[in-house]
Specification:
single chain, mainly beta, 6-stranded mixed β-sheet, 5-stranded antiparallel β-sheet, 5 helices, 10% helix, 43% strand, globular, disordered N terminus
């Protein structure tokens, strides 16, 4: 039995009336008034068997109290197996002993890269002579530059770039996207200047010169050579010089969540979930739903007295959530609805955050949901191509305010979440739709963007807008307001009272 309940605030998404200054039309907007009740019973076991590493010298205690007997001393860097969380402690197994360690003294060790792996830079960085930013810079690594891993300690990675070998920060590397295999019958294009040759040999006769970007028809593939046809000539070209051309797809009809339809999970007899901490250094925590009963789910992120709530979709892929309340030890919980506004814990885990990263505002989330195949993301890509971050913001801002209209007749139901594809296709929406579309388009092009909610001068009722990170600072942008009040400056200097951000 649960002996006690407590109430905490949560953003309720239902709608009242908004009136813009100088305008006679009324528009539906959000109101913050719903409350969520969570059972106070301790959350169930966190991910069993997770490997943790100590961040300082600490102890394994007999019970979840520093006043209990010390069973084992753990030096800094000692690996232990986490069994479950209990308050501010984690039950662990180490050196044949089972007991409790303060959760703040544990962290999830990074996944080490294997020697020989090919990685790419996720932002502009440098190749250093030694594992220190104070050492000599051997080369500049632009975003997308590929490197070959020699060794990795989780913080620094020894890599080879061309003829140079040095060190780069592990956090600046990411796995490069897989190139589709060249197959017979495919249409491909050359990724560099090359030739069609009479035989599958670089020493054979050159039949035709192919400039970079030239399309060819693939007849067959054997080893590292492809038999191709172009401009009436047929011969052989190295497959390494070709990239598969993806056929253009027709724009799909809008659905509630087009990007996640293929990952929707069927309901089962119980709900279970896994909390993943591999991206905590980027101020992001991920949740993987393993099974669910069909009841509504939420993720609760708490740091001290501050709490944020997010909807968790019934999907089989991992879903990301920002850790943006500051530094310290967070409690991340998955909650399942019991009835009405009452919820119970599914799983909970303490997560230590020691720094701030704008990566939390580059991810796809439940509210700002996007992927590279979506039409608005493709549009953002074309608008942002070759531009600086500040020019990307201007280009996408101008497109949104000039192409999307405020929908005064829209009356969404409680629990409404924007769908950027629907907003893009219909070219209309309320402030929540504008903010989600603008955030998704910019995030997809590498510009950190916040979804903000609260109150604004000139707007009656609860409101949604954005903040963008440009030239080392955050700037307020309100596309739904500016779409109606033409001539307004893009960056707002005052008049916004933010109550939440995600």
């Amino acid at each position: 039995m649960f002996s006690k309940l407590f109430s905490v605030g949560i953003l309720g998404v239902f709608f009242a009336t908004q009136v813009l200054v100088g305008m006679t039309g009324a528009a539906p907007e959000m109101v913050a008034s719903q409350s969520l009740v969570v059972q106070t019973e301790s959350a169930p076991t966190a991910v069993t068997g997770t490997t943790k590493k100590t961040t300082t010298t600490t102890y394994v205690y007999k019970s979840a109290s520093t006043g209990s007997k010390k069973l084992l001393k753990l030096t800094k860097g000692k690996q232990v197996k986490a069994l479950r969380t209990k308050g501010s402690f984690t039950q662990v197994s180490a050196s044949g002993k089972t007991g409790y360690v303060l959760s703040k003294h544990l962290k999830t060790p990074p996944v080490l890269l294997k020697s020989g792996a090919v990685m790419q830079a996720n932002a502009k960085n440098y190749l250093y002579k030694s594992a220190s930013t104070g050492s000599k810079k051997l080369a500049t690594l632009n975003k997308g530059a590929q490197v070959k891993v020699r060794s990795d300690n989780g913080t620094w990675t020894k890599v080879t770039v061309g003829s140079k070998t040095g060190y780069v920060r592990r956090s600046s590397l990411t796995t490069p996207p897989k190139k589709p295999a060249i197959k017979a019958g495919a249409v491909a294009k050359t990724n560099k200047k090359t030739y069609i040759q009479s035989k599958a040999s670089s020493s054979s006769t050159k039949v035709l010169a192919l400039s970079a970007g030239k399309q060819v028809s693939v007849k067959s593939v054997s080893g590292s050579w492809a038999k191709v046809s172009a401009s009436g000539k047929t011969g052989y070209t190295p497959t390494a010089h070709l990239t598969t051309v993806t056929p253009a797809k027709a724009t799909p009809k809008p659905t509630a969540k087009p990007s996640t339809a293929s990952t929707v999970m069927k309901a089962s007899s119980k709900t279970s979930a896994q909390i993943l901490t591999d991206q905590v250094s980027k101020n992001v925590v991920r949740v993987k739903l393993l099974s669910h009963t069909g009841k509504k789910l939420k993720v609760m992120v708490t740091l001290g007295s501050k709490t944020s709530y997010y909807d968790l979709a019934a999907r089989s892929d991992t879903q990301s959530f920002p850790l943006n309340l500051g530094t310290g030890t967070y409690k991340v919980s998955v909650l399942e609805n019991i009835s009405g506004t009452s919820y119970k814990y599914v799983v909970s885990q303490n997560v230590a955050v020691s720094g701030n990263s704008n990566s939390a505002y580059l991810i796809s989330t439940y509210e700002v949901n996007f992927n590279s195949s979506m039409a608005p993301v493709q549009k953002a890509k074309s608008l942002a191509s070759g531009k600086s971050d500040s020019d990307k913001v201007k280009a996408i801002y101008n497109w949104v305010i000039n192409n999307v209209s405020y929908d005064y007749n829209k009356k969404p139901a409680s629990g409404y979440v924007p769908d950027i594809v629907t907003t893009y296709n219909t070219k209309k929406g309320i402030c929540y739709d504008f903010a989600a579309l603008f955030a998704a388009m910019l995030r997809s092009q590498g510009v950190p963007t916040k979804m903000c909610k609260g109150y604004a001068s000139g707007v009656s009722g609860y409101h949604a807008w954005n903040e963008v990170y440009v030239n080392g600072a955050w700037h307020t942008v309100d596309t739904s307001y500016d779409s109606q009040v033409k001539g307004s400056s893009m960056y707002k200097s005052s008049g916004y009272n933010k109550t939440s951000q995600s």
